[in-house]
Amino acid sequence: MNLFASPDTMATNPTLAVLGFKRQLVYHLHIWAFIAVAPLVMVQWQHGNFLLSALLILFCVNAALVILFLRLRSVYFLKGRLFPILAVVCAAYSTSINGHAGLYWAYPAAIALFFLLPLKEAIVCNIIFVCVMAVVSFLQFPEADFWRITFSLGLSCLFAMIFAWLVGRLQQELTRLATTDPLTGCLNRSQLADILNSQIQLRERYERVSSLVLIDLDYFKTINDRWGHLAGDRVLKEMTIRLRKRLRESDQLFRIGGEEFMVVLPETRQKDADTLAHQLLTSISARPFLDDIKLTASASVAEVCRGETWSVWLNRADQALYDAKAKGRNQVVNAARPSNEPAHTAGPSTPASDTSAAI
């Protein structure tokens, strides 16, 4: 995954955008940490603090490795685990030999942990950090200073923790809003390419075949014209509930158009996807919506084929859906396979009922 992706790429995928900004934050924090700490190596060496100089060199080496790994390989070196260890050791030892001059570095180090580590790990590391610094302060300073240092450092960590927690919640909510349909709660098109590409990669690498099902409500415009858009929205919500009852946890449901939905079925051959598609259409037509609105739907099924892109895969399913509409609606049509792709036992498709949908 490219940490330094273009803004256009990040804008099309909210999850990648959040991840990209997090890694950019890690990258720049380590750069400035390196710039701030590197001169201290010589300062402590000149004061005869050779052990502290060695610890600060390790700190700088870790920062440099994080920067290089992120820049060259887009990998977070050791997932930032060395930073809290070195920060605690350096700050505690510097405070024990340099007094307040070493203590000042404990505050930015403690706060930085909430930006470099997952929240739970940062909390544990900071509890250890505060405890260690409290012991050092108790041994090094007068009692009044000990209490001031312990409470001020503890409060700094608490405020940073609250801020990091709120930012994390905000990121999760913004990602959810950007990746799901606000009416039905289904995934939207922002995730479509990534999820289909992931299924294609599983097909290419491990022969793990996936299928997708496109479902389009028949004559849905009639509902909006006759009962109003509010009734149409309620129908879409109820239909989503009916579809989800038939799906596995691993299946992913998208709303990709006004009344068009897509189901991605991992580890599913076309024959099994065809069976599920008929069940989904039956669940839609089995009973009326909102007590008196009867609906049917048309569907298409497409199994991913070797060597095709996600757009080609989706286009084959789209064409099959058009065929289902052209043949009278209220039925399932299996997508045609490329001529060079061997067919699996998909079985013929049959209409979901004997009548075309009409409202």
In short:
This protein is α+β, with helices and mostly antiparallel strands and about 350 residues long. It has 13 helices and five strands.
Helix fraction, binned, reads: 55-70%
Provide the gyration radius in Å: 29 Å
Largest sheet: 5 strands, mixed
Give the number of helices: 13
- Average predicted confidence as pLDDT: 86
Distance between the termini: 48 Å
Number of strands: 5
Q: Bin the strand percentage.
A: 5-15%
Overall spatial form: elongated
Strand order of the largest sheet: 2-3-1-4-5
Which structural class best describes the helix and strand composition?
alpha+beta
Q: Helix-strand pattern, N to C?
A: HHHHHHHHHEHHEEHEHE
Q: Identify low-pLDDT runs.
A: 1-11, 344-359
Blueprint of the fold:
Blueprint: H1 7-12, H2 14-46, H3 50-73, H4 82-98, H5 100-103, H6 106-116, H7 119-140, H8 143-179, H9 192-206, E1 211-217, H10 220-227, H11 229-246, E2 252-255, E3 260-265, H12 270-285, E4 297-303, H13 310-326, E5 332-334
Parallel strand pairs: 4-5
Antiparallel strand pairs: 1-3, 1-4, 2-3
